[in-house]
Design goal:
The structure holds 2 protein chains of 2 kinds.
Chain A (H helix, E strand, L loop, with lengths): L5 H5 L16 E7 L5 E7 L1 H5 L3 E5 L24 E2 L5 E7 L2 H8 L3 E6 L6 H6 L8 E5 L2 H4 L5 E9 L11 E6 L5 E5 L4 H12 L6 E5 L14 H14 L3 E4 L2 H7 L6 E9 L5 E13 L5 H10 L9 E10 L13 H19 L3 H7 L19 H11 L2 H14 L3 E14 L8 E8 L5 E5 L8 H13 L6 E3 L2 E2 L14 H28 L6 E4 L2 E4 L2 E6 H10 L5 E7 L4 E3 L4 E3 L3 E14 L4 E11 L7 H19 L31 E6 L25 H13 L8 E2 L3 H8 L6
Parallel strand pairs in A: 1-12, 8-30, 10-11, 14-15, 18-19, 28-29
Antiparallel strand pairs in A: 1-5, 2-4, 2-6, 3-5, 7-15, 8-13, 9-10, 9-12, 11-20, 13-14, 16-27, 17-18, 17-24, 21-22, 22-23, 25-26, 27-28
Helix pairs in contact in A: 6-7, 9-10, 10-11, 14-15, 15-16
Chain B lengths: L1 E5 L2 E5 L7 H8 L18 E8 L2 E8 L12 E3 L11 H8 L9 H13 L6 H7 L10 H14 L8 H7 L10 H6 L13 E2 L5 H4 L1 H4 L5 E2 L9 E4 L2 E5 L4 H6 L1 H6 L3 H6 L4 H4 L4 H6 L6 H7 L4 E6 L2 E6 L4 E3 L2 E2 L6 E8 L5 E8 L10 E10 L2 E10 L6 E2 L1 H7 L6 H13 L11 H19 L6 H6 L2
Parallel strand pairs in B: 1-5, 6-7
Antiparallel strand pairs in B: 1-2, 3-4, 3-5, 8-9, 9-14, 10-11, 10-14, 12-13, 15-16, 16-17, 17-18
The chains are: A alpha+beta, B alpha+beta.
């Protein structure tokens, strides 16, 4: 089935936040933010702005009836700064005016005075000064201290990955409408409607039942609207609450880039030891996560770094420690992969380093150390359903790895100005929220008396195709034509206490809740039909909108059965609830079984470097991916191609840059570049790794949102290999992204003008 | 009064000429299919078609409506997605659906509009043209492979397109609604606007001014290019090529004169912004914004072009290389505008090349760019004009390097020595586009690249590196 939104998308009829018709009396908000990285507020003079024609009000912390607090995991973040600002772009006030233009003009008239304080942007400096968001955490297995003695080769080094701007093309926004009795109806471009609701209630000092949050769809999220859609939603709600007028807040692109957090930059140290046979004996790493000025989701992101620190390899002795370092940057947040990629990069760098010094191809080290069934992850879960070795062999055969190697060597021997390189990038990614209580979902299904169906779940559609998958489930369970089923907006009054659409788990959690609701309704209808035909419900089946009895079609249609059930006063509404079984994790010992299952895959990346200019093009990326049994190959292929290219962007051209004062230098689309159509690999081939899938995945169709992003890391190591073909003395500092600048400087490390 | 046709409706509005087309269609006319992504021409979510009657034919081009002044669409046909929608889906829309070319959908309309612009081009369809048409559209879900497959399908559906009458051909096949056929007559009924009193700001395409001064310009009257068609031309006079200040980059790209004298023109201009920007950005605007990394500035500096500055019918002519006095400081009086650019057509012994490197190869601002025009006779460099951007406060004509090369034999040694001269006459700084060390190295490499590319028999990278 094609994405159910595709027709409205291509005709421009899909409704996003900024397309919602505006009610009379709507005021528009412009967020006033801190121009400095750290300091105490001395005075803020709003008088000129307030005097401007068309300005209605300026909301500050003084207007907050409840708590001035929006921190989700840790209460360490104010909605509006009171006494102190901690990063450039931190919200201080919301200017409300009759038009967006007036609000933005008035913002220029506010005069602010601060006493500036020390700005820290480097996570290692923050750690040295004891500025941590939470105490460090360590995952360990075996005994590394004792293991070093058994190692024939030991390599140490550092690795860095920069942050990544989400750059959802639809910027952050919210529209709040006051209802009677102080209730607020809030449309928000958020991945986490409940988080917006909970936080708005806290700031307004009211019960959650007074805030209704509704989400139709997002113009991209990628993690950037998991927690960071909240402030704008809460500001709009607060404005509507205080002024009893509708309030619209949509961030301009530069404001969005300046004010919101991004993928966490990491600076890490590694030490890896191998045996004579090139088996990894021990691995240690220290991760310095640049959390920004407050916690946001950083503790959870940091945790996933630890979970994925050994990527797809079995290492008997592991000790990995992570520090969440508090700096004066916007609070960094979720981004596809959620800390996992940052952890994986370090062990890939360590292996590349080892391969270089040992004079072997990196892929030989990788292949020798692949994780197998029965191996223990450092966090205690025993690997199960691992397909890595088989995937590796599949890739070697299907894409003729030997021929690729030969072709690259031949090309490099023949060309002076251009060099090719390749890399292999295995991925093992755990599926489930690592915070166990979040692994629950609900779905509400109405069968209307005419036989049509309405489905509400906690899932937010943001391009990942989750609504399409939900519709497939409902249509299939009832054996209905998909046109008879409508996917409703995600709304906190229909489905409450939702987890955000994140962690690749949205389809699994909400789909299984939906299955349960459909199952219950199906049973009731079958019982009703069984009474009518005088048979048992096991004799009844639903096929193509018709009732079958004992394997034979009857003349009773689905619509007639529904009508009959309605007249018989049978409930045609059901709420399904699902909680992932099996999973658990004990933080006190850092052991457990946190993931329902893992997704596996392998990518082969080929690149060609222009050694005159330092630029590069990716010839191809060939992937063997573990889909389980894909329930929608069109949607899943889109997730893989898209995730891959987003990962390549992170590893190559996307260069986030702050100056020492904490000012964002890559502050617009003209200074922060993401892949365009010419930047994608010439060829992307995806082969399915055939498995039975897992019962833990919806319809055995494994989660696919995040894992493909990490295939993009192959880009870094492919470039490194091509660069070394030109300059064999090149020593990588494993500092991603590998921009054309770093490539050129690497090509001519010893011969600059 | 600004008058134009928006989809199939005649519009007459009192909005100021500096108001943005994007705001007008979305907020005045509630045509919400056109999206806001960045408001600086870098994402393409707001792409619309602009049709104008040119040389007896409707010419449709995709533009970014976020940078298009309402005054610049006077007398034109503006088409948003709503103006393309019909009862069923168009082949462009259908291909995007069939190939799963849409994920979150926010960028999708921009792609559909750009691909429709591709269909409307009066040229034979090709996969390269299809991809080139969407070079200004960014998809963050990165569904580019699927979009590429859709573009391929569309190209197949265009087989046999009547390039002389694309509108009729496309109407017959439901690519565009039938009302398109009546547009020429309706446009002819709109009279040119009376030229207003000088407003102090002349706006070309707006592709830079609206990025720099959006708040200042979007609510006021401006003098706009659409009112001055006489400033848009490319013609030969004697041995000279003359271009009006309002000539767009796309005008240059499609000019017979340029195509004849610059065989690799397509490759060069492909590196300059994107299709929707090239369709509106003007030569005069590129020069006068004085960006030290302006691509066309580098291009025309190497042609040793002259510019004509005009104020109240008073003209004076100077070399482009003398126009730049310091960072964003020009030899230009406040009231003067660039009305003409001219350059001597290169001789058959002259060889032209343009190089640019940026973080992203396309639709990006250069870290370093450079152009070269080398005249070679019997192995001796008769003359060299070489420019560079990104290595100093102004777009730079490399006087000393050019002088050094003159009269020298073409050899690796000459080029290496010239690089020493070049390195001494540049002063790059470190910024978001690269460190100064990188820019120095990059310019050396691009300087080498001119010679490697132009004289592959004589000069190679290996030769240039080995003899150091």
């Amino acid at each position: 089935m094609k994405n159910i939104d595709s027709t409205s998308h291509v005709t421009g009829k899909s409704i996003y936040l900024d397309d919602i018709p505006i009610l009379q009396g709507t005021l528009y908000g412009a967020v006033l933010d801190s121009p400095i990285g750290h300091g105490e507020v001395v005075a803020i003079d709003y008088s000129e702005a307030l005097a401007m024609d068309g300005v209605a009000y300026i909301l500050t912390h003084e207007d907050i009836p409840g708590e001035n607090q929006i921190g989700g995991i840790i209460p360490d973040e104010e909605l509006f700064a009171e006494k102190e600002v901690h990063f450039q772009g931190q919200p201080i006030a919301l200017i409300l005016a009759e038009s967006e233009h007036i609000a933005f003009e008035a913002r220029k008239l506010v005069k602010m005075k601060f006493t500036e304080k020390e700005v820290i942007t480097d996570p290692r400096e923050a750690r040295a000064k004891g500025r941590l968001i939470i105490p460090p955490r360590t995952f360990s297995l075996g005994n590394t201290a004792a293991a070093w003695a058994q190692c024939a080769h030991i390599f140490e080094g550092t690795a860095q990955t920069n942050g990544q701007e989400h750059l959802y093309i639809e910027t952050q926004g919210a529209y709040a409408v006051p209802m009677e009795n102080g209730h607020i109806r809030l449309s928000s471009s958020t991945q986490g409607p409940t988080q917006v609701q909970r936080t708005a209630a806290r700031v307004l000092g009211v019960g959650m039942h007074r805030i209704e949050v509704d989400v139709v769809r997002l113009g991209g999220g990628f993690g950037g609207k998991e927690d960071q859609a909240t402030p704008w939603g809460v500001m709009a709600a607060l404005g509507a609450f205080v002024l009893n007028q509708p309030i619209k807040v949509v961030l301009h692109r530069l404001d969005d880039m300046r004010m919101t957090g991004k993928r966490h930059p990491y600076s890490s140290d590694y030490k890896i030891g191998l045996s004579e046979e090139l088996k990894i004996i021990a691995y240690e790493a220290t991760f310095h996560q640049n959390a920004g000025a407050s916690a946001d989701l950083s503790p959870a992101v940091m945790e996933r770094t630890l979970f994925h620190a050994t990527n797809s390899y079995f290492v008997p002795n592991v000790e990995v420690t992570a520090y969440s370092c508090k700096t004066n940057l916007p609070p960094n947040t979720a981004f596809r992969g959620f800390g996992g990629p940052q952890g994986m990069f370090v062990i890939e760098a360590a292996l590349a380093h080892a391969a270089r010094e040992l004079g072997v191809e990196k892929c030989i080290l990788q292949k020798k150390n692949l994780l197998k069934n029965g191996d223990s992850f450092p966090y205690g879960q025993i690997a199960d359903g691992v397909g890595l070795s088989q995937i590796w062999e599949d890739l070697e055969a299907k894409f003729d790895l030997k021929a690729v190697e030969a072709r690259v060597q031949e090309f490099n021997a023949q060309h002076e100005d251009r060099k090719k390189g390749f890399s292999l990038m295995p991925v093992t990614f755990g599926i489930s929220f690592t915070k166990t209580p979040m692994n629950q979902a609900r779905a509400l299904v109405h069968i209307y008396s005419d036989g049509s169906v309405g489905v509400s779940t906690g899932a937010v559609e943001m391009g990942q195709g989750v609504n399409t998958k939900m519709l497939q489930i409902a249509a299939q369970m009832f054996s209905l034509n998909p046109s008879r089923v409508k996917l409703e907006s995600t709304n906190t009054t229909r489905v409450a206490n939702t987890s955000p659409s994140a962690a690749s788990a949205t389809s699994d959690l909400n789909g299984k809740a939906l299955q349960k609701a459909c199952q219950a309704l199906q049973e009731r209808l079958k019982n009703c039909a069984a009474r009518h035909w005088g048979v048992t419900s096991a004799d009844i089946s639903l096929k193509e909108e018709r009732i079958w009895v004992k394997g034979k079609a009857t003349d009773m249609s689905w619509d007639q059965l529904v009508d009959m059930a309605f007249l018989a006063r049978i409930a045609l509404t059901e709420n399904g609830h699902y909680a992932t079984p099996i999973i658990h994790f004990d933080k006190t010992i850092e052991k457990g079984h946190p993931f329902a299952y893992h997704v596996f895959g392998l990518a082969l990346t080929e690149v060609t470097l222009d050694c005159i200019r330092g630029t590069y093009e990716f010839d191809s990326v060939k992937i063997v991916h573990d889909f389980g049994k894909s329930m929608n190959t069109a949607v899943d292929t889109g997730q893989i191609e898209g995730g891959l290219v987003q990962g390549i962007g992170w590893m190559t051209m996307e260069e986030l840059s702050y100056d020492q004062a904490g000012k964002l230098r890559s502050n617009s689309l003209s200074t922060y570049k993401i892949p365009d159509i010419y930047a994608v690999p010439g060829e992307i081939l995806i082969e399915a790794f055939e498995t039975e899938g897992t019962e833990m995945a919806i319809l055995k169709s494994k989660a696919v949102g995040e894992p493909p992003l990490m295939y993009g890391m192959g880009a870094f190591f492919a470039i490194e290999s091509a660069l070394r073909a030109f300059n064999p003395d090149f020593e990588s500092t494993y500092d991603a992204p590998f921009t054309p600048e770093k490539v050129l400087m690497g090509l001519y490390q010893s011969s600059q003008p | 009064m600004i008058e134009f046709i928006l989809n199939d409706r005649k519009i007459a509005t009192d909005q100021p000429s500096g108001a943005l087309l994007l705001d007008f269609v979305r907020y005045e006319k509630r045509l919400t299919g056109t999206k806001i992504g960045c408001r600086e021409g870098d994402c393409g979510a707001c792409t619309v078609l602009i049709g104008s009657w040119q040389n007896g034919q409707m010419k449709y081009e995709q533009v970014t409506s976020c940078l298009t002044a309402l005054g610049n669409v006077h007398g034109r046909h503006v088409v948003t997605i709503e103006g393309l929608n019909m009862e069923g889906m168009t082949p462009v829309q259908q291909a995007m659906v069939d190939e799963s070319g849409t994920q979150c959908g926010f960028c999708t309309v921009g792609f559909v509009v750009s691909l429709t612009a591709y269909c409307l081009q009066p040229t034979a369809p090709s996969p390269q043209h299809a991809i080139a048409a969407i070079d200004g559209n960014i998809c963050r879900c990165t569904g580019y492979k699927a979009i590429g497959r859709a573009a391929q399908k569309i190209t197949e559906a265009l087989a046999g397109k009547d390039v002389a009458q694309p509108v009729d051909w496309l109407v017959e096949r439901n690519f565009i609604p039938t009302y398109f056929q009546l547009i020429p007559d309706r446009l002819k009924a709109i009279r040119p606007r009376k030229q207003k009193q000088p407003t102090g700001i002349v706006l070309g395409g707006g592709t830079d001014l609206y990025v720099q001064k959006h708040d200042e310009l979007a609510h006021r009257e401006l003098e706009v290019m659409a009112d001055r068609p006489e400033w848009r031309y490319v013609r030969m006079e004697g041995g000279f090529c003359r271009l009006g200040g309002g000539t767009t980059v796309s005008d240059i790209a499609t000019s017979d004169i340029f195509q004849k004298h610059f065989p690799r023109l397509g490759d060069h201009l492909k590196l300059v912004s994107s299709s929707p920007i090239r369709n509106i950005s003007t030569l005069a605007g590129n020069f006068v914004n004085a960006s030290p990394i302006g691509d066309l500035t580098a291009f025309f500096l190497a042609l040793d072009a002259k510019i004509t500055l005009t104020e109240e019918k008073q003209n004076r002519s100077i070399f482009l290389k003398d126009f730049y006095k310091g960072y964003k400081e020009l030899d230009k009086k406040a009231g003067e505008i660039i009305t003409e650019i001219s350059f001597h057509i290169p001789s058959p012994n002259s060889h032209f090349n343009f190089e640019k490197v940026s973080k992203r190869t396309h639709l990006d601002i250069a870290s370093v760019n450079t152009a070269a025009l080398i005249t070679l006779r019997e192995g001796i460099i008769q003359q060299a004009h070489i420019s560079a951007g990104g290595i100093g406060p102004i777009p730079t004509y490399l006087h000393k390097s050019c002088a050094f090369l003159q009269g020298k034999p073409l050899s690796p040694k000459t080029i290496q020595s010239a690089n020493d001269v070049l390195q001494a006459e540049i002063s790059p700084i470190s910024d978001v586009r690269g460190t100064k060390e990188y820019k120095r190295l990059m310019l050396r490499q691009l300087f080498y690249a001119h010679f490697i590319g132009l004289f592959p028999g004589e000069i190679s990278l290996k030769g240039l590196l080995e003899e150091e």
